[in-house]
Amino acid sequence: AQIVESGGGLVQPGESLRLSCVASGFSLKHYAIGWFRQAPGKDDEGISCINSSDGTTDGSSYYSATVEGRFTISRDDAKNTVFLQMTDLQPEDTAVYYCAAVPPSLTPQRFCNMAPRHLGHWGQGTQVTVSS
């Protein structure tokens, strides 16, 4: 079982990117999914988390204050993929972005706040650089 993130790159301030998180070997719909980022010299920051979509939870989502209104998390269960649409990117959004899947025992906000590297499945990350 593994997770692979893609879609990162170099963009200018104000531009958009869409990150993808694809799983193999297990179904993402049974898991809570989180997007986290780590900037150089900083700790993991949970930016958006969403509950499972298999009907066992309310499917709710959470956004950190730093991205709310600019980023949108969504699922495509048919493609076993979770997306993070990022708009109005700014230099402070520069980081390695990670996707994680954990059993839905935490609320989305708690999942994002904990950034539990010891739980579930984590990808290797995709670099997002915002620079003029």
Task: Give an overview in words.
The protein is mostly beta strands. The chain contains one helix and eleven strands, in the order βββββββββαββ. A hairpin with a 6-residue loop joins β4 and β5 (45-50). The longest helix is centred in the C-terminal third of the chain and has 7 residues, at 108-114.
Write the layout of secondary structure elements.
Blueprint: E1 2-6, E2 9-11, E3 17-24, E4 32-38, E5 45-50, E6 61-63, E7 71-76, E8 81-86, E9 95-102, H1 108-114, E10 121-122, E11 126-130
Parallel strand pairs: 2-11
Antiparallel strand pairs: 1-3, 3-8, 4-5, 4-9, 5-6, 7-8, 9-10, 9-11
What is the helix tally? Answer: 1
How far apart the termini lie comes to 38 Å
- How many beta strands in the DSSP annotation? 11
Query: What are the low-pLDDT stretches, counting only 5+ consecutive residues below 50?
Result: none
Radius of gyration: 14 Å
Overall geometry? globular
Strand content: 35-45%
Major sheet details: 7 strands, mixed
- What structural category arises from helix and sheet content? mainly beta
Q: Assign a percent range to the helix content.
A: under 10%
Query: Mean pLDDT, rounded to whole units?
Result: 96
What's the helix-strand series?
Answer: EEEEEEEEEHEE
